[in-house]
Structure formats: C-alpha cells, structure tokens
Design goal:
This protein is α+β, with helices and mostly antiparallel strands. It has helices at about 5-20, 25-35, 40-45, 55-65, 65-70, 80-85, 90-95, 105-110, 115-130, 135-150, 155-165, 180-190, 225-240, 260-275, 280-290, 295-305, 310-325, 375-385, 435-440, 475-495; strands at about 190-195, 210, 215-220, 330-340, 345-355, 395-400, 410-415, 425-435, 450-455. The strands form two sheets. A six-stranded mixed beta sheet has the order 5-4-8-7-6-9, with helices on both faces. A three-stranded mixed beta sheet has the order 1-3-2.
C-alpha cells in the first residue's frame, strides 16, 4: 500500500469515527472486535495512522461497512464542509506547525460539530478564494501573529549573533564596516558581491539587492548608503549562518511561494539588526535615555546615529528589548507611507505586542486621524520639503488619548524621505501604553514639552465636531446614530 497523505489519513480517520459512533461502539468494544489496541484506533481516528490491508478488513467488518466504501475519500453529507475544506488545500497553506498546532486537531475540532460550523467553514473557503491573488498578505498576517506571541524577542537568534561575532572576530566596534561583512561572505560562504550589480537593470531600480543562488552572486544597488549596504550584507550572513534554505532572492518580499520564505526573511532581518545593534550596549543606551528628566529628541536620534542604523532598524531593536528588559510589553509599532502625489497615508507595517492596540492598519479606505503624530509629522516634513528645505529625519513625541477609551499612549515618531521612491515619505512610530511600568521606566513622561492630544482611528469614525484637521465627514458615526434612532423609535412603538 502506498503511503497516505495527511489529508487521506484525516479523512479516513473521520470516516472511522463517524461509523463507530453511528454503531454506538466504544473504543474498547471496537478494539475487542478488531484485535487492535485502543491507542492504535485512537491514532487512526486522529489521522495519524492508516491501517494495512489485513487490518482494514477487520475494521470494515467491525464497522459494518464494505472495505471499498471505507477507503473511499468521501464523507457523508454531515461532514461535507470538512471534506471541502481539506480538498481546498486551505488548511495546508496555514503555518500551523509554527504555532505548534496539528492540522488533525483542527479538523477534529471542526468535525465535532459540523452542522453548526458548516457556515463558518464555507466562509473560510470563500475568504481563501478571495485571497488567492494576495496570499502574501495572509502570510504576513501569520508572521505578525507569530512575532506578537513571542514579544518579538528570539533568544536563539540573539545567541547565534553572539556566536557569529566571536567566531569571526567582528568585535564590539559599531557601526560595523560593510567591507568586513563583504569579505566574510566572499571568503567563508563563496559569495561574489557586486556593488553596482543592479544598475544595468532599470526594472529592478526599487530593489536594494538580489541574490543569484546558482552563481552565488549578490547584486547590490549602487545607490545604497553605507548603512543600507551593511544591513543587506548582514541579512545575507544571517541566511547563511542560521542555515535558512527556503528564502526569497530579493531584498524585499515581492510574492512568497510558502510561509517559510516570509518567516526566514524575518529571521535573517532580525539577525542583521541584532548584529549591527548589539543587545547589551543598546539596552544600556535606552536605559540612559529613559532615565533623563526631560524629553530629548536629539538624544533619541543620536542613539540611532551611533549605530548608523535606519529608523526601521532602530525601531525593530526597540520592539525586541522593551518587553524583555524594560517590562514594557504593551506597545505597538506602525510604519506609515505618505504618497506625495495623492497626499494619501497608508500603514504598510505594523506590530502589536500583548494586545490589539487602537492605531492599526485600516482596510476600509478611510482617512487616518490627522492628529496622530505618525501622520502630523509626515505633514510637517512635506511642508518643509515644499519650502525647499532639505530634511533627513525629524522626530516628535505625543501623548495620544484615544477618544471613547481610557487608553493613552506615549508615541515617539521618526519621519524621513522615502527610499528609493522619491515621491513618498515614511514615518515609524513606537507607541507605549501608559501604565505603571511605563511611568516607572520613562522618567520624562510628564515633560510639558510632550504634547497631549485626543486622537481617534479614522475621520469617518470620529464624532468630534471641532476638529480642524478633519479630512472626511463622520459618515460611520452618522449612520450609527441613524440606526440608533430607528431602533429607539421601534421600541417606543412596541411599548405604546
């Protein structure tokens, strides 16, 4: 008998369970009739085992079903939604193993009440079909959940970076020279690094790097700054040192074939960030910054400059260390892109640790609250650019109180011109939910220089009537109030 696929074993197990329950047999009774152990039968029903032909015959007789009927890959009508779900390959696309979940357990959970969850399964299938052209969005969502579950801190990668630094004698001096990393890749891992390798290919102008595995050539854009080049080389070192085989060949993920590509890209990125911003030194720097009595934006920028880090690298490292070493797990990270041509704002990266925080990506084509420091700082940067003033990076802080909730966040934002696209700017924001832990750690929290503002999610969902920054009418609020008045009138008519 040829080896059975996981789906075949799961479908067979469900059929055995269905027939056993229909005949009112316990595991012990079925074991007695078939000569199989209770544990073996349990493994069959869970989709972990598939019996050989001689045992199949005993099982078919005990269940009162022809053997040919038992091995057919069809379930009866009550389990049809489960069968459709398995055949759709939707569950196989989920990175269940990353979260320590066995697919058979998911199917067993669904199969325990198929009539009640049939509609839910159908909805999942419709969503999966709708997602077919944008499955990378699903993978990024799964990755974000994985990072959030681990508070975006991975000791195994931190330890690998420490070993790598010691093994290759990289030393403690930062910034780490790109030339040193290039030499390491070429001598130890057989790379050929071509600093202007992407220049002859204008179609690839928006990429920073491309790896050609057959030739082991790393093609770089000549427009990269020293820091950007060092980061890309550090990421390549991460792929090699961590032994990450399933990978994308481009510096940014364009379209991923499997979830492992997304996960490994994240791990290599983490490796490079940790390599360029050593853990112990960075924790000490942030501790000194938080211990100051006054908010000092220049001191904040100086930490980033000391490591020659980009804002994204800097904030990535902050999300690694704040939960672990400062007992600040309730935070969010957002990256906004401001399209200057359309004057539109979009969240293209986000991370929420410990809970789903109020500011987050919006898929409803609504207008983000212009009071957020994430957005207002981008507007300030654009105004400076229109006035002909060159600005590399600006920083701002805000205490954001979310209307209709008791939540308040300390938000620290950096805004900079976009790269490589000339018609966009980018801001990165770290938001810390203000609680006793934040008050203990951040001594400058009550500095009057930090503006306090009431903010909301989007203009469409905000009931404020005196907001001069409003970019769209409160249509969602208006509709909600209309429905509320209808419900109230219906109640009055019923009670009259």
């Amino acid at each position: 008998m040829s080896a059975k696929s996981p789906n075949e074993r799961i479908l067979f197990g469900l059929k055995v369970k269905q027939l056993r329950q229909k005949r009112g047999l316990s595991f012990a009774e079925l074991a007695a009739e078939t000569g199989m152990s209770v544990s073996y039968l349990n493994e069959i029903e869970k989709g972990k085992k598939y019996p050989k032909d001689d045992k199949l015959a005993h099982l078919a007789r005990a269940l009162g079903a022809p053997q040919q009927e038992l091995v057919r890959q069809e379930l009866d009508k009550s389990l049809a939604p489960v069968e459709e779900l398995l055949q759709s390959n939707f569950l196989n696309e989920l990175p269940l193993d990353v979260f320590g979940i066995e697919m058979s357990k998911v199917v067993e959970l669904i199969a325990s009440a198929p009539t009640r969850v049939g509609a839910f399964i159908t909805t999942l299938l419709e969503l999966s079909r709708s997602y077919a052209v944008r499955e990378e969005n699903f993978y990024f969502g799964a990755l974000r959940s994985y990072l959030e579950l681990n508070n975006n801190y991975f000791e195994d990668i931190e330890e690998a970076v420490r070993r790598c630094i010691a093994e290759f004698g990289l030393g403690a001096q930062r910034p780490l020279p790109a030339e040193q990393l290039q030499s390491l890749l070429e001598q130890r891992y057989g790379y050929t690094v071509i600093p202007d390798g992407l220049d002859p290919h204008p179609e690839l102008a928006e990429l920073r790097a491309v790896f050609l595995p057959q030739k082991r050539h790393l093609l770089l854009s000549s427009r990269l700054t020293g820091m950007q080049r060092a980061f890309q080389l550090g990421k390549e070192l991460g792929f090699q040192y961590l032994g990450l085989k399933e990978r994308a060949l481009t510096s940014s993920l364009l379209k991923s074939r499997v979830f492992e590509e997304v996960l490994n890209h994240s791990r290599a990125t983490y490796f490079s960030v940790a390599l360029h911003i050593p853990l112990d030194a960075f924790v000490a720097d942030i501790n000194r910054f938080f211990s100051a009595d006054r908010w000092n934006p220049e001191a904040f920028l100086q930490i980033m400059r000391n490591y020659d880090a980009s804002p994204e690298m800097f904030y990535h490292r902050l999300t690694n260390v704040l939960p672990r070493f400062f007992h600040i797990p309730k935070l969010f990270f957002l990256r906004f892109v401001h399209s200057l041509d359309q004057n539109e704002f979009e969240v293209d990266r986000e991370l929420h640790l410990n809970r789903r925080h109020h500011p987050h990506g919006n898929g409803l084509l609504e207008h983000y609250c212009r009071r957020w420091v994430s957005v207002s700082l981008l507007s300030d940067l654009y105004q400076l650019q229109k006035e002909g003033k060159f600005v590399s990076t600006i920083v701002g802080a805000q205490r954001s109180r979310y209307i209709g909730t008791e939540d308040e966040y300390l938000c620290i934002t950096l805004a900079r011109p976009g790269y490589p696209s000339p018609n966009q700017n980018v801001s990165v924001t770290l938001g810390l939910l203000i609680n006793d832990d934040v008050r203990r750690q951040v001594k400058f929290l009550d500095d009057p220089a930090i503006q306090v503002r009431e903010v909301n999610k989007t203009c469409e969902r905000c009931a404020l009537t005196d907001c001069v920054e409003r970019a769209a009418p409160p249509v969602v609020v208006t509709k909600r109030e209309k429905n509320r008045s209808i419900a109230q009138k219906l109640t009055e008519l019923n009670e009259a």
